[in-house]
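Fold it.
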Amino acid sequence: MTRTTIDFGIDLGTTNSAIAMLSGVGAEVVKNNLGSDTTPSAVMIDRRGRLQVGMNAKQRSEEDPDNTCIEFKLRMGSTGKPEAFAASGRTMTPEEMSAEVLRSLRHDVVQRDGEEIGAAVITVPAAFDLGACDATRRAAELAGLPYAPLLQEPTAAASAYGFQTDTDNAFWLVYDIGGGTFDAAVINVRDGEFTVVNHHGDNNLGGKLLDWAIVEKLLIPAVDREFRVDDLRRGNPEQRRNIARLKSVAEAAKIAVSRADEAAITAEIVDASGDTQDFMYDLTRAEVERLIEPLIVRSVNLSRKALEESRLGPGDIEKVLLVGGPTLMPYLRERLADPREGLGISLDHGQDPLTVVARGAAIFAGAQRLDTAAAGPPPPPPSGEYAVELEYRPVGPDIEPFVGGRVTGADTTGCAIQFVNPGTRPPWRSGLIPLAADGTFTATLWAEKGRANTFEIELTNATGDRRPVTPGTLTYTVGIVETQPPLTHSIGIGLADNEVEWLFKKGTPLPARRRTRLSTTVTVSRGSGEGMIRIPVVEGEHHRADRNRRIGRLEVDAAQVTRDVPEGSEVEMTITVDESRIVVARAYVPILDEEFEHVLNLRTESVPDAGALARDAADEKARLAAVRRRVDEFGDARAAAVLDRIDAERTVADLDADVDAAAVDPNAAAAAASRLLDLRAAVDEAEDELEWPELVQQARDTIPMLHEIARERGRPADRPVLEAAVDAIQEAITAHDAGLLRQRVEEAYMIAARVLDESGDLPHIVFERLRTLQPEMRDRDEAGRLIATGRRAAQSGDLDTLREVNAALNEMLPTPQSPLGMISTVRRGR
């Protein structure tokens, strides 16, 4: 059949994947050759080089971990070592393995319907970074899906839950916890459309963490008690097979205790002597509930944060939409519904949480028209016949949708077009609509809710005779649709002082475009091939560049330039982000009058080295211990609350486990790097809380200084700038944001220094401050002579000489001071 819309949606999951097809006003999951709705995201290559995907590969991962790979989605976009399949000698990247899963799902459609599809909507976690989105796009191309828009998983879930809803002016919360990722998204439904208001998520929070907790906290200790097994842990490469077996049975038992109080575990374990032992363990629901508690705490904290930033409380949310296999656990549902320790919001579990994302993606796909790149241009009509080019939305909230178009082919003089909806009783007709001289027309249709409305297109010539036209039908469905998708993380460039220049802020509607001017920090030498324009790109929300996820670089290589580019040369960057969060960047270098295409390299960030992770983790834990001591000493409640959150989420314990396993498991290395960023940001937050009272006092001392400068020393044009700096400080105090307040105070001092310098007061202020520091200077006699010279220069108004004296005196100090630290002396009484 010839499709005009994409119609197929794919949930490319960490643990399992699924494909669904639009069917009327719903979506139907396409079963695989085993009759299952889902296909395990697992790949195996045997010693003959034969590749298998799905259940066979998943089952073999227990016995043959050296030749199978699972959970590779978590490394999408990284540039670490490819996965090695030992028996065959082959290697594959996460993108290549994901492509095999996508190819398998495409084959399921062929097997069932005989249809080769070249387009599908593919879902990604909202928490995915730009590199992971770009890697998913590449995987789709490798799988034979050159046209594959990416859709955020919470948006897909909202499409499935709300497509035919009558709800209006309501807020929903999507709680999406899968095998390896978590997303919490606030959705606003209004006037037949929904908008993602806010999002928070974690790419390393999901059911697999519970699997590993069962293995490490329960099964490994039980094995050690019963048998002699040397160093049984994830980080020991000699124990990969034993660990893989325990991981597999842990996952199965976890699912079983969702429906029963207890599940029997049996596994074959190879002991220290090489003998196979039968290991048995009875896993109870209570044990699983205890182990999942930190995961629930973190997911609830992220959900609450998404609500708080949206200025919404539980009473403002109509319902929570449950998505992902772990939401089948009764305990998780009970905890979420608890108003004290959970969210206290009504839960909606009316959809199958395992397939809702795929079905939502298919519903979304039904609203996406196939462009000529995907479907190819329509063939010209045979001589004497007609074709119609249509412009309309295949899905929308209106029961009276608008359609426009143009009839081409034979002579259209005197022709008219009519649309008929035969599904209504009686059939609705638009009436004859005369074509304009160029064959164009516009029409308003009538559609019914609850079904796909297929309109017949009738064309009549000047004599009123019916003439065949291609296509002969148009399909429109009344349903809820998404408005512009938002950017889920801010995107910026890292600067030399560890600051960030933000290009796009979180929540920016997509598509988006930004142009910015930067300067080169090195000389790019054409002749020698030395030097490169290289600017780091980060994704996150932290004002310190190194606290965000570094996702790539903006690059222009020396080999690309036609002549030397001196240090400090201007570079104009133009960056666009489309609805799929695919980024394209161009660089224009004015000194060359050249533009360089595709200068964003998202393949630069590798999975961290296990040794470096261990060292960094030790440093952060030492910093955390120092903060604990300060909290114990000063008793700051806000800082203590941050430490309680770190403990409740088991951030350190998870980090230690992932660091230990990082040398063997690249997924653990990626998780450790992510958790390390979380710990750094949390410790920063606790330190900021401890420094808050002192910081507020400093800020409040700054405000009178700014007022005095504005009143007595600034020009009229300076006063609005200084008053704006005061307002900015007050806003940061109200927001209780230590990082922001520190930044606002620093900016205020810089403004004050500029105003005082332009007024001629700054050199005098700096000189008076340095004069008092003479006892600390290395050469007091020389300092005395300079101070005498400075006095004469100050009295005569010789500012140039006074600045020279100040610079020389400052160099004599053990630690030279910044003028910004000296301008507080402008306040009276000092």
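Residues 378-482 form a domain with the Immunoglobulin-like fold (CATH 2.60.40.10).
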